[in-house]
Design a protein that fits this description.
four-stranded antiparallel beta sheet; mainly beta; single chain; seven-stranded mixed beta sheet; 117 residues
Length: 117
């Protein structure tokens, strides 16, 4: 069965950095686009970034452009999210999701908490 397992969330000071990882299993990893979505209780979820298959075309939300970097290592079935110059407003639970078509998520990981304070 499909699984996405995130790790790397932590408490960090403003201006700091973190690297999130998401390992996929149960599917052919390099056949799918992947994305990171973040959620804060009481707020609408935000699509942070995504990476396509193959050439790995990427997209970033304006709120993170220039600070976050998404990458993938298909040999390790892993997608990464490098978070730099973190701000308090980046505090959220970050979820790795698989693209089920037209960038609509069909599978979600359990999430990893990032707290900037």
């Amino acid at each position: 069965h499909v699984q996405l397992v995130e790790s790397g969330g932590d408490l960090v000071h403003p201006g700091g950095s973190l690297r999130l990882s998401c390992v996929g299993s149960g599917f052919t990893f390099d056949d799918y686009g992947l994305a990171w979505i973040r959620r804060v209780p009481g707020k609408e979820r935000e699509g942070v970034t995504r990476i396509a298959t193959g050439s790995g075309n990427t997209y970033y939300a304006d709120s993170v452009k220039g600070r976050f970097i998404i990458s993938r290592d298909d040999a390790k079935n892993t997608v990464f999210l490098q978070l730099n110059s973190l701000k308090t407003e980046d505090t959220a639970k970050y979820y790795c999701v698989r693209d089920g078509g037209k960038w609509l998520p069909d599978y979600w990981g359990q999430g990893t908490q990032v707290t900037v304070s």
